[in-house]
Structures are given as C-alpha cells and as structure tokens.
Amino acid sequence: MKKNRNYLNLIYELSWLDFKLKYYGSVLGIFWSLLKPFMMLGILYVVFFHFLKVGIPDYQVYLLLGIIIWNFFADATTDSTQNMAAKANLLQKTNLPPFIVVVSSVIQSFWTFVITLGIFLALFLILGFHFTWSVMMLLFLVIILVFLVFGVALIIAPLSMHFKDFRHIWDIFLQMLFWVTPIVYQYTNVPEKYLKWYLLNPIARIVIDARNAVLYNHVPEVKQLLITTGIVALICFAGLAIFKKYNRAFIEEL
Amino acid sequence: MNVIDAARITKRFRIPHEKKTTLFETALGYVKNQVTYEDFYALRDVSFTVKRGETTGLIGKNGSGKTTLLKILGGIIKPTEGAFHLEGVAAPLLSLNVGFHHELTAEENLFLYGAILGIPRKEIREKLREVLRFAGVERFKDTKLKNFSSGMTARLAFAMMVQTDPDILLLDEIFAVGDKDFIPQCISVFRDYKRRGKTILITSHDTKLIAEHCDKTMLLEDGNLIMFDETRKVIDYYMNGNGGPHSQL
Known about the structure:
The complex is a heterodimer. By secondary structure, chain A is mainly α. In chain A, 74% of the residues lie in helices and 0% in strands. Chain A has one domain (2-253). Chain A has helices at residues 8-22, 31-51, 59-86, 88-93, 99-126, 137-162, 166-179, 192-198, 202-214, 222-251. In chain A, helix 1 packs across helix 5 (99-126) and helix 5 packs antiparallel against helix 6. The longest helix of chain A has 30 residues, at 222-251. Chain A starts with 7 loop residues before the first helix and ends with a helix. The mean pLDDT of chain A is 89. Chain B has helices spanning 23-32, 66-73, 106-117, 121-135, 150-161, 182-195, 207-213, 231-239; strands spanning 2-16, 37-51, 55-59, 81-86, 90-93, 168-172, 199-203, 216-221, 224-230. The chains are: A mainly alpha, B alpha/beta. At the A-B interface, helix 1, helix 4 and helix 10 of A face helix 1 and helix 3 of B.
C-alpha cells in the first residue's frame, strides 16, 4: 500500500512558505529576524558590560555568538509548538506524515540562523579578530545543534497538540533555560557543586564549545564533544519515539 | 480482484465529559480523580470489498460516518479495531483547497498544493499553464489568493488535483463547489478517471449524482453499514424511507 514518495519537494515548499509568511507584510521583512539578535546584543551589552561590569574580554563577540545559537534554539522550538496547530487543516485532511511539518519548521528557522551566523563571522573579521582552523569545529557543532533542535521539536510538538496551554509553559521554560545557559556570563561563574548538573544542558555545552572554537582558537575536547553528542542522540531518539507514538492520535484533537 | 478489502472497521472516539484541553485542567482532573469518558462510535464493524475500477457511492445523513470511513481508508486516522488492505496508492481528497494560503499568489499556491499532492516540481512547472487555463484563471496567476472568489479557488485546486494519478480516489463532497459551468468540467474529469479504470469512492448528498455515476452504493447510518448493493436499490431504500425509525426526514 505504501509507495515511497519523495517528500523533499514538499519540505522545501512548506519551509519556504513559512519563511515567506513569517516576515510577510512587514516593512523590513527578513531584516526583522536579523535585527532581533542585534537588538538583544545591544541591550545585554549595555546592562552587563556597563552596568554590572562583567569584565569578560571581547564581550561583544562573546555575547553575540551565544545569542545567535540561543535564538535558533528558542525560535525553532517555539515555532514547533505553534506549527502543528497552524497546519491542522493539512494534517487532518491529507495522509502526509506529520513528521514533515516538524522538519520544514526546523529548516525554516535554520535558514535565518545560517544568515545571522554568516553576518557574525563577517563582523568578527571586520572587527579585527581572526580565527584559526579550529573554526571548522563550528560546522560539527551546528550539525549537533540542528539535531538537538529537531529532537526537542519532536518531543514538544505532540505535547502542544494535546495541551493547548503548552506553548505558555514552553515560553516560561525557555526563559529559565536562557539563564542556565552561559550566554551573558561564563560557565566558570557557576558554583562548583552545581557545575556537574549545569553541564548536562546540551545548549550550554554547544555554546561553550562554539566559543572555544571561534573566539579562543581552541579545539574542544573530544571527550566533551562525545558527551554532547550522546545527550543530543538521547533527546533525538526520545523525540522520534514520542512523536511516532502520539502524532496520529493527537491530530484528531487539533 | 479486490482493490479495497475492509474487515470489521470500528472507530471509537472518546469524548471526555468535561473536555480538558490544557495541561493545567488535566492535572487538576487527575488530582480530583474526575477523568470520565463517554464512548462515541463513528463506525461500527464495517466490512466490505471493492473491486478494481468500481465507482462506489457513500450515502447517509450528516454524522453517519462517511467522512470517517474515507479518512481511515486514506490513512489519516487509524481505526480503533479492524483492518483493511488497499491495492495501490490511495489519494484522499477530503477537501479541495487543503494547504492553500490566501497571502500567496495563484502560481505560488499551485507549487505548494502540487507538492502536497506529491507532484514533482518539474512536472508542476510544465503543467502550470494548462492548469491555470483549465481553471479559467490564467489572467490572475500573479494575483493573491485572498482576492479570488471561493469558486475560483476551488477551480484552481480541482485543476491541480486532477494532475495526480492515484489508483484509488477517495472523494468527499467535492462536487459541492463550483458554478454551473464548472460542474460539467468536473464530471468529465470524473468520467475520464472511471474510463482509465480507477477505483473511486465518493460521498455525496446529491443522490442524482450518485445514481448517475456509481456502480454500487453503501448506506451508512449511525456508523453502521446498513446496505451495500446496486446503487438503484440502495437509493430507492434511502429515499423511500424503508429505514425504520430513523427515516423520518
């Protein structure tokens, strides 16, 4: 009964649709999404560098790299809590796998992330910094990050289909997660006895290693990378299992 | 040869007495131990077979389970009990303009809708003009869909839909849209599908249409398959109210 169908075209069309609609009708269009990390950078820089005097060297690039990685995670997962409901008609009236709605939603956010990351690297060089070949590690970290976002999206998409208030819970959770990720501060500021737990946060691990690779020309430890990969793999498998089990049943409830 | 073979399909919906749609309410419900359900059977023990090339009508009142049956056969929802087997690829066309977006132009919508239907991008590009002409909206290809009338939108969707080539078509009330000029166009496409030996399941409240095009017809009532026979007999039964206490319509 099943004929293997090529869903690449559909994923392309859906992610392009979301991309177009997201910035549709706004004067600045796509620039809003590029503006957002820089607005955040401006605010956090003034507050933490000038008011609170955090004293981290090259704080502007330190902060910006963290913000860009964080924004991708936050935007893509938030989208996935809303996208299933937004595509309810499509899911309820066609036999397309709900999986592709999640995939296209993540891809859509990924393009914004790639553009902002490109701008970051350009700025980095313009500001007179330079990186060595350790920057290649960034590629690996981006792949890990995409899998992490994808895994989390697979877990929360069914939850948001079943519980209408889940997106508010996710908003609050993201706010909390933002502060347990070393975006505005250094992870070495975290008290030693909590550090072991703190470093279970995969987003924190990715941010730390990305800074090592780009800002400090320092190749992350293989052991640490393996632990990050392991945590992300666990989340991905959990996501696949949960999504597979519940997505069909929850479509009826949308 | 049987193209559709359905055995004892049952679909039960659980309707909570107090519908809990938020995590907060659910948690509260568990704490107070108040989660009670009522079962609603949309389909009960429905078994039937359809042969290759047959056109089968589905009739019955609103809520009798017609659409649920098509959704199950199309793989959109799973039956609670029972099983079915389909020979070939089934295309559930439950609504014409699924996935259409009013902020996109007609052309952009066709690319999206074509992708939803599973038509390769290259093929969509080749057929674009033909589709727009068939729908009679060639002049408006760069117009946003929000400026289209509902009839024009339906025609556009229909024109794209008929570019697909499934073995089994599951059609839900698709002739209910369109004006007097467009319906004959739909019917001719429908005839063409029949001629090419496609197996078709169609629901409609238009008994004339069913009588004219369907070889056999099923009558559903409250989720039960009451009758599955030659179209003429089923429609006679349905119209003349031999249906006992439920027939006072």
